[in-house]
Amino acid sequence: MLGSINLAEFVKADKVFDFEKFEKTVRISVKALNEVLDEGLPLHPLQEQKDSVRDRRQIGLGIFGLADMLIKMELRYGSKDAIEICELIGLKMAYAAIDESSNLAEEFGIFPKYNRNAIMQSAYWRRHTSTDNRDRVLAFGMANSQLLTIAPTGSLSTMLGVSGGIEPIYANFYERKTESLHGRDEYYKVYTPIVKNYMEKFNLKDVSELPDYFVTAQTLDYHERIKMQSIWQKHIDASISSTVNVPNNFTVKQVEELYMYAWEKGLKGVTIFRDGCKRAGILTTPSKAGSAEKSVEQILPRGMIIKADDNCIGKKRTLTTGCGTLHCEAFFDQDTGDLLETYFSKGSQGNCNNFMIGLSRMISLSARGGIDIYSIVDQLKSCGSCPSYAVRSATKKDTSKGSCCPVAIGNALTDMYEEFINEINEDYDDIKPKSDKQSRKKNLMNPCPQCGEPLAFEGGCNICKSCGWSKCD
After folding, report:
1. Average pLDDT along the chain
2. What Cα–Cα distance (Å) separates residue 66 from each residue in 6, 8, 163?
3. How far, in Å, CA of 149 to CA of 112, rounded?
4. From the CB of residue 112, how many other CB atoms can be counted at a distance below 10 Å?
5. CA atoms within 13 A on the CB side of 383
6. In this predicted model, what pLDDT tens digit does every residue of 357-366 receive, in sequence order?
7. Cα Rg of the chain, angstroms
C-alpha cells in the first residue's frame, strides 16, 4: 500500500521547513495506510496475496515535491545545505513512522511474521530509534514489516504541478506546438509551475534570469544527483524509484564511472537515462539556436537487424487480387511507430503463395534493418501490371487498389501505418509524404497514448506532463 507526502507544502513563509507539522503528517499517513491495507485485504484475488499482506503488513510511505521544496527554501538541489536538510527530513520521517507503527502494534497487535531478534539486530532500526522510544518499540513490537519507499509519483506530481519523488525538476519550461489556432506550426513555451510563479512574482522575462538554485535534470551533475539519492537511501527501508538523466554525449566510460560512484555511495540501485536514446520520447527543450529539438532518429549500423519482440501492435487488411483473396498483416512498434513484421498469405496454395511468403519475409527484414516504410512501399509500387489483376479489374471491378499484388500490398501497408500513427495521435502534417518517392521521418517517437503529447522519462517511468498518464500506474 503506497502513499506520498508533498514536501513543498511544509515550507513556511520564512523559508524554513516545518518539522512539527511534517511529523504529524507522517503519523497520520502511517495510520491511514494501515486502514487502507485492512480495507483492501479481502479484495486480493489470490489467497497467497492475502496471506502475504496479512502476515507482513507492508506499507510504503514516500515523498514527492522535493525539488519544489528546495527551490522555495532557496537551496540548490545537490548542494551541501540541501543534503543536510534532506538528512534531517529523512531521519524525522523514519523515526515518526517507526514510532507510529509501534503505537499501532500496542493497540492492534504486531504483524504475524514479526521477529523481535531480527528487529534488534537491524542497523536501520537502531539508527532511527532513540532511548525515548526504543524500549517501548521492543516491548510492543511493530505493526508493519515495511514502512517507507519512494515511488515515481508521476500522476500525483503532475496533477499537483510539482516535481515527482526525489527527482529534480525536469526542465524550466517545455516546447508545445499548435497548428489549429494559427493554421501553421507555432511553438510556445509552457513553464514548470514553480518557475512560472517565480517569474511572475519577480517580473522576470527569461529563464536565464532565474537564481542558480533553479537546476534541472539536464543540467545537474550526476554526482550531486547520486549524493541526494544516497542520503534518502539511508532513511528508506524499502526501495527508491529514481532516474539520473545524462546528456547524449555521455560515454561508456562515464556510465561505468556513474555506476561505480552509485555503488560507493551505498545505493541499492540506480537508473540512468541517456538523452536521445531510441525509446526517448522526452519533452522537447530549446536548442542553442532557439528552435525546438526534434527526437533523434535511430540509425542502425549497416548489417544490423533489430529483433521484433511481442511488444508490437498488429493491423490487418484483406485484399482482393487477380488470383483471389490476399491476407495482409503488419505489426508496428507501439513506442516508435516503426514497421517490424509483415505476413502475407493467399487463399490458394502453390507458387504464388510461396512468393507472398518470401516477399513478406524480405519486407520484414528490410524494416528491421532500418529501412523506413515509405522507401519499402516506393519499391513495391515500382512493379508493373499483372495480367490476372488487369482482367479481374476490368471484368469484376472488385480488386483492391493497385495494378498487381506488390502494389496493392504497398497501398495496404501505407494505409495501416497511417491509421496506426493516427491512433497514437501523431501529427499528420509531419508524417504525410511530400511525394511517393520521398521517405519520411517521424517527428515524435513516444507520444502519450491518452492525449498525444510527448512523454517524459522520470523516476524510472514514462509519464505525461499534460494529462498525467503514467505507464507505471
Report:
1. 84
2. 8, 6, 7
3. 21
4. 11
5. 19
6. 899 999 999 9
7. 28
Rounded CA gap, 228 and 68, in Å? 14
* Amino acid found at 25: T
Nine-digit cell at 297?
Answer: 532518429
Dist CA 241 CA 224 (whole Å): 17
DSSP 57-124: -EEEEEEE-HHHHHHHTT--TTSHHHHHHHHHHHHHHHHHHHHHHHHHHHHH---TT--HHHHHH-HH
State the Cα–Cα distance between residues 237 and 211, nearest whole angstrom: 35
Residues 231 and 88 sit within 8 Å (Cβ to Cβ): no
Chosen CATH of 1-170+214-291+450-473 out of 3.40.1650.10, 3.20.70.20, 3.20.20.70, 3.30.930.10: 3.20.70.20
Q: Please say whether the beta carbons of 443 and 295 come within 8 A.
A: yes
Q: List 191's β-bridge partners, or say none.
A: 173
The segment(s) of the chain belonging to CATH 3.90.1010 are 312-431
Query: Which regions of the chain carry the CATH code 3.20.70.20?
Result: 1-170+214-291+450-473
In the sheet that 312-321 helps form, which strands lie side by side, from edge to edge?
312-321, 324-333, 339-346
Q: Quick check: 333 and 428 in contact, CB under 8 A?
A: no
405-423 and 373-380 are packed helices; what angle lies between their axes, rounded to 10 degrees? 160
pLDDT tens, 229-277? 999 999 999 999 989 988 888 899 999 999 999 999 999 888 998 876 6
Rounded CA-CA distance 425/449 in Å is 8
Encode pLDDT of 75-89 as tens digits: 999 999 999 999 999
Measure the CA–CA gap between 367 and 339, rounded to whole angstroms: 6
Tell me the CATH number for domain 312-431: 3.90.1010
